[in-house]
Amino acid sequence: MPATRHTPTKFIEVLQQVWWRIDAALDADMIYWSAALGAVEALMNGTTAIIDHHESPNMIEGSLSLINKACRDVGVRVNTCYGVSDRWDNSGQLHSKVSPLSKMTDAAQRGLAECERFIAEGGTGMVGVHAAFTCSDETLNAAAQLAKQLHVGVHIHVAEGDDDAQAAARLSELAADDWLLVHGVQLKAPLRGRLVHNPRSNMNNHVGYGAPTTKSNTILLGSDGIGADMLEESRLAYARLREFDITETPETVAQWLRNGYEIFPEAQTDTVTWNYDQIESPWHVAFTPGTRATDVLIDGEVVLKDGLPTKVDINEIRAKAHEQALRLFERLQ
User: Which residues belong to any copy of the Amidohydrolase-related domain (predicted)?
Assistant: First the structure.
C-alpha cells in the first residue's frame, strides 16, 4: 500500500489520509474478495459469526449483498450494515470540511436506502452510521427512525476520538438498547446500547483507552476489522485491561466475548474444535498464543476441517484478494 503524502499525527488525519481514501476507492470486486478473505480468516480462527460495518461511497447499491454472499460462500454468519455519512458529496468526493453539515447528503440517503433494501430482502443487518461528527442531525434522526421501522438497531462509531467527543450529547435522545456503540473511548456520559471495545484498533489509531469496565453498558469485544483472530484480540484486551486495573482477571474479557451471542444467539449451537484442550479456561487462553480451530460446524454443516475451509478454496481467495489489493493500491497512488 502506498504511504500517505504526510505522516498523520492526529486521529482525524489518519481517517482522512488512510481509511476514507480506501473507502472511496472500493468497487464491487474489491468488496467481495476482501470480505471473503476476512470471512475465511475469521473462520480459520474459530469465529462463526461476524458483525460488519461497511462503507464504499462510490459503490453503495448492492454492497451489502456482496458482503453477505462472500460470507455465505465461506459458510459464516454475518450481520452487516452500510455506514452512512454526510462527509461525501454527490460525486463521491470528500467534503472540504468534516464538521457536521446542515442537512443530509445524497450519499447518506443512498446508504440508508441500501440498509433498508438489504434488510427488507431478508438480509441480517442493522442501520449503519459512520459517526455523529460526520453526520447532520437530519441524517442521525433518519437513521434512528429507519432502524425503528425495520425493528433493528443502529450500528455506529461513537466517541472514538476527540473529534467525536460530543457524540453522547447528540445521540442521547436517539440511542436505544439495541444500538451497537463502537469504541466509546471518549464517551463521557451514559448512552443506551451495547458498547464494543476494540483494543488493537484503538491502539493503532492512537485514540486512547476506552476503560470499558467503567461503563455501565453491556460490553462486547471487537476487532474493528484490523484482525480476524478474536482469541488474540482477547489476549490483547486482557493485557491492556490489566495495565489499567491490576485486580482484573481474564474472566472479564471472556464475558465480553460471550456477550457477542446477544447479537447471534443461534451461534451458540455451532461447534468449534480447537488444537488446545484447555479452551474453556479463560486463564489458559489468556496466556496461550497460537490457539487455532481445527474443525467447525455451523448449522450442522462442516465448514472447516483439519484447519482448512471446506466450501471455498483458500488459495483462490488469497490470490483474488491479492489481485484486488494491487488494484486498490494503484487507485491510492
Answer: 19-238
Pairing of strands 293-298, 301-305: antiparallel
Q: How far apart are CA 106 and CA 92, in angstroms?
A: 10
**Helix or strand holding residue 332 (H, E):** helix 314-332
Closest-CA residue to 189 (of 208, 170, 176):
170
One of 3.90.550.10, 3.30.70.260, 3.20.20.140, 3.40.1160.10 is the CATH number of 11-332, namely 3.20.20.140
- The CA distances from residue 325 to 93, 108, 124, 283, 321, in Å, are 21, 26, 27, 38, 6
Q: Where are the domains of the chain?
A: 11-332
- Cα distance between residue 297 and residue 48, in whole Å: 9
The model's pLDDT over 43-99, given as tens digits with 9 standing for 90+, comes to 999 999 999 999 999 999 999 999 999 999 999 999 999 999 999 766 666 665 555
Provide the 8-state DSSP code for 165.
T
Region of 255 on the Ramachandran plot (φ > 0 left; ψ -120 to 50 alpha; else beta): alpha
Evaluate if pTM is beyond 0.90. yes
Partners of 271 in the beta sheet?
297
pLDDT, tens digit (0-9, with 9 covering 90-100), for 133-188:
999 999 999 999 999 999 999 999 999 999 999 999 999 999 999 999 999 999 98
